[in-house]
């Protein structure tokens, strides 16, 4: 059970990308290409050019990396929860508490969804 809790915390932390000042405007000139992230069925696909204006995409997955400070805070919390000497020993967070500390803020969510 502990492994699932830690895994859940880790996966949820990946959704958090808020910086102290928020995300700010989306800058199309700042892009990152992920290595080895192309689905096998797409590796032989041919580029068919730009998508027509007004076309819709059914779904998209956007993974946001936590800041170094957020990752440190999560790592500290997880270590404290396993340390018998800590006040946070076995002090598990509810999903709402975890979201308040580690999830993407509603303001940043709006920035992302309105920026596209």
Strand content: under 5%
Q: Calculate the terminal CA-CA distance, rounded to whole Å.
A: 38 Å
Quick check: average pLDDT?
77
Order of helices and strands: HHHH
Indicate the low-confidence ranges by residue numbers.
1-20
C-alpha Rg (nearest Å) = 18 Å
Helix content, binned percent? 25-40%
Number of E-state strands? 0
Overall outline: elongated
Compute the number of helices.
Answer: 4
- What kind of sheet is the major sheet? none
Briefly note the structural class of the backbone: mainly alpha
How are the SSEs placed, and which strands pair?
Blueprint: H1 2-13, H2 68-82, H3 95-102, H4 106-115
Explain this structure.
The protein has 116 residues and is mostly helical. The chain has a domain at 1-15 and 64-116. It has helices spanning 2-13, 68-82, 95-102, 106-115. The longest helix has 15 residues, at 68-82. 3% of the residues are buried.
């Amino acid at each position: 059970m502990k492994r699932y809790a830690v895994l859940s915390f880790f996966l949820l932390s990946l959704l958090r990308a808020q910086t102290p000042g928020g995300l700010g405007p989306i800058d199309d000139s700042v892009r990152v290409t992920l290595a080895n992230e192309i689905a096998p069925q797409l590796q032989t696909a041919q580029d068919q050019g730009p998508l027509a204006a007004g076309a819709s995409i059914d779904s998209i997955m956007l993974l946001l990396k936590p800041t170094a400070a957020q990752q440190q805070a999560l790592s500290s919390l997880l270590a404290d929860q396993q340390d018998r000497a800590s006040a946070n020993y076995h002090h598990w967070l509810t999903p709402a508490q975890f979201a308040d500390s580690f999830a993407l803020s509603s303001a940043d969510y709006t920035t992302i969804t309105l920026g596209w």
